[in-house]
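Cross-posted from the bioinformatics board.
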Amino acid sequence: MADFATKNYGIVAPVTPDERFMRMALRQAAKAAAAGEVPVGCVVVKDGRAVGRGLNRREGRQDPLGHAEIYALRQAARRTGSWRLEGCTLYVTLEPCAMCAGAIVLSRVERVVFAVPDPKAGFCGSLGNLVQDRRLNHRAALEQGVLAEEARGMMKGFFRELRRSRRR
Amino acid sequence: MADFATKNYGIVAPVTPDERFMRMALRQAAKAAAAGEVPVGCVVVKDGRAVGRGLNRREGRQDPLGHAEIYALRQAARRTGSWRLEGCTLYVTLEPCAMCAGAIVLSRVERVVFAVPDPKAGFCGSLGNLVQDRRLNHRAALEQGVLAEEARGMMKGFFRELRRSRRR
């Protein structure tokens, strides 16, 4: 029975809070994909409640700073009434870049959870780790791999579609 | 005479374009100080014209991402109609932090000129150099020290005032 439960044969596993909020971030990513943007989504959570959401809008808004994390952090600051996002967890489908990692440190986010690493531009472990740089005045806990298959699948599907549409 | 000219005894030296635009950035910084914000100002220039201006508004707007560079880059993207700020120079009174350095790379700014280094949080030479990281897909030329005395003086004056007002 123990084996049955741990191997999880066809049983829907209870969803952890991290999975629940990463699922929300994936929904934001899906919205980005539907709008023709690279599918990245983000949710900022405080006391078990999503206080900020964002999706990548770089092309649509012609905003160089239009990453999902930036919108989510801004909304969270607005909704909580303070730029100090202490006690907040940020969920994002792709490892944050240098700008977003820097923004996370400035916002004093407590914990960052991302789905897939970004070996080309990620600064939460891949090219560097800005959110845990001991020289800066704030550091965040870091976790990766939550719903990684789903996030990776969405990304791959998006770029496959993009290449197909460009060949036409 | 040569000595007289080079030592510049009381003579107003011709202003270089870099000094002219850094002076504009300093005016933005002065506005920030007047509003009780840490005095940092920024100007983005394209073809000899200021297309984006910004000043630090972190407290006033309770925006964790409210750095001068962020507002200036956003305005420049809006005014030029594209998030690709190729051919642009960014002038800022204080060395950009990790978030702003990351934003500069994402915006493809060609050149960054700052007045004073920030040994605590600067990522354009002090704690690291994100705008010239060869692993990223864009790099910017970098210059520092333009009107450094003025920028440093403004910063020092602001913090002296702040300490004084807190003692009251």
